[in-house]
Design a protein that fits this description.
CATH class of the largest domain: Alpha Beta
Strand content: 25-35%
Largest sheet: 7 strands, mixed
Number of helices: 14
Distance between the termini: 68 Å
Number of strands: 25
CATH superfamily of the largest domain: FAD/NAD(P)-binding domain
Number of domains: 3
CATH architecture of the largest domain: 3-Layer(bba) Sandwich
CATH topology of the largest domain: FAD/NAD(P)-binding domain
Radius of gyration: 23 Å
Structural class: alpha/beta
Shape: globular
Length: about 450
């Protein structure tokens, strides 16, 4: 094989791309990984890792205040940024060592398609030949028309991660995962927060009871939550001191004054400059179109991760990297069932879910039954002082089939993996009810909710 000939070229070095490259190399494929920015992508540098580092630090600060800690919020913000940088650097160093251990060839530059079997890297002035190509270029925040980012007053999530000084009053436009996570983070640091969401409730894709309880929890912490509210950028005003955002609501228009605005209205795939039109790769709604095997409209070109559409989650992206390589190597991997992808919002209290919501299950014709177990009856929740929230199990009343699990509470991200396993394995409620959980633990609440569904709980 010539120097510039490969079995596989992966364009994009985020979690989807580097997982695919490592998996392909382990299967004996000569692989090239092309990344124009930093290895690790959004997840490591501007998404999962830095935001969760800040969230955990802010929560620790809040708890420390109960023990008479005297640090100011601004000083904590600066220290959190230092800690965030350390965590990201550690993750980056580990990733570089991992790629070196697998002898992954990495080129720094922007890759683009010239033909189905040719990838150009203009920064290096060369075109490489490849049997297969995997596109893993990720996603970027969507701007709000009429309210462009300036990095000073009007912010994207990327901007807010690097903001030197805490806002005095943050207006969050968008009540999805990104919006509520940043709202929660800044509430813990004593910032005034207003959330403006166009849908009737926060995180409208999640179970109704969960999202309603989340709104109540954020409001009790001091957030002002406006749902069914649409920003009117053309009627808004900027000043030296901040922003006055005009908002349309059913109750009538209103104006909100804040020092900063975070625009968190969604993300779109990084599809520009890839040469997709030139080679006939279809794009719809800002994302590359793929089939169940993750192939695009060109058989030898795959797309994985955020650029291939939602859910826009790192663990889903990594799994697609494995599945795409398995497919191009001639295997027959089971297509990813996106309803079985666990999802978490790392706000306080956390939201975690997998499977169908009660509303989705009802719409599909199931005879739905739901059982809830409150953290008020969980010993570990009392030990850590976090009794807010509940675990909800959704199942079919006629067959006992498990349909979904939803949770709101302290560190519920640690219990949702078990629920994902139960759904994937097709475990019945009665079988699952026999599984023992350590006492005391947060995950006991999941076990008790399952036993309530199975009819064996002492709390019934």
């Amino acid at each position: 094989m010539a120097e510039d000939e490969y079995d596989l070229v992966v364009v994009g070095g985020g979690i989807a791309g580097y997982t695919a490259a490592i998996y392909a190399t382990r299967k004996g494929l000569r692989t090239l990984l092309v990344e124009q920015d930093q290895l690790g992508g959004v997840c490591l540098h501007r998404g999962c890792i830095p935001t969760k580092s800040l969230l955990e630090g802010a929560y620790s600060f809040l708890r420390a205040q109960t023990w008479s800690a005297t640090l100011s919020s601004q000083e904590v913000w600066r220290r959190l940024h230092q800690r965030k940088a350390e965590v990201v650097a550690q993750g980056y160093d580990s990733l570089v060592r991992l790629l070196r251990r697998h002898r992954i060839q990495v080129e720094k530059g922007r890759g683009s398609l010239v033909a189905p079997g040719r990838v150009a890297i203009p920064d290096l002035g060369k075109v490489v030949e490849t049997r297969w190509t995997i596109l893993a270029t990720g996603s970027s925040p969507i701007p709000l028309k009429g309210l462009p980012w300036d990095g000073s007053r009007i912010l994207s999530s990327d901007h807010l991660l690097e903001l030197d000084e805490l806002p005095q009053h943050l207006i969050v436009v968008g009540g999805g995962v990104v919006g509520v996570e940043f709202a929660s983070l800044l509430l813990d640091l004593g910032v005034q927060v207003t959330i403006v969401e166009i849908m009737p409730r926060l995180m409208s894709q999640e179970d109704r009871e969960i999202s309603q309880a989340l709104e109540k929890a954020l409001s009790s912490r001091g957030a002002s939550v406006l749902t069914g509210a649409r920003p009117i950028p053309e009627a808004s005003h900027m000043s030296r001191d901040g922003v006055e955002l005009a908002v349309a609501r059913e109750e009538g228009p209103c104006r909100i004054r804040g020092t900063h605005v975070l625009v968190a209205v969604g993300r779109t795939g990084n599809v520009q400059g890839l040469g997709l039109e030139d080679v006939g790769v279809a794009v719809k709604g800002g994302f590359i179109q793929v089939g169940g095997n993750l192939r695009t409209t060109q058989e030898v070109i795959y797309a994985i991760g955020d650029v291939a559409g939602g859910p826009l989650l790192a663990h889903k992206a990594a799994q697609e990297g494995r599945l795409a390589v398995e497919d191009l190597c001639g295997g027959s991997p089971c297509p990813l069932d996106r309803t079985l992808v666990p999802r978490v919002a790392y706000c306080r209290p956390q939201v975690a879910a997998v499977g169908l919501t009660e509303e989705e299950a009802t719409a599909l014709g199931f005879k739905v039954r739901a059982r809830r177990f409150s953290f008020r009856y969980n010993s570990m929740a009392h030990i850590v002082g976090e009794t807010e929230g509940f675990v909800k199990v959704v199942y079919d009343q006629e067959t006992g089939r498990l349909l979904g699990v939803h949770a709101l509470g302290h560190h519920v991200e640690e219990l949702i993996g078990e629920a994902a396993l139960a759904l994937k394995a097709g475990v019945s409620l009665r079988e699952w009810a026999d599984v023992l959980h350590p006492h005391p633990s947060i995950v006991e609440a999941l076990g008790e909710a399952v036993r309530m569904g199975a009819g064996t709980s002492i709390y019934l």
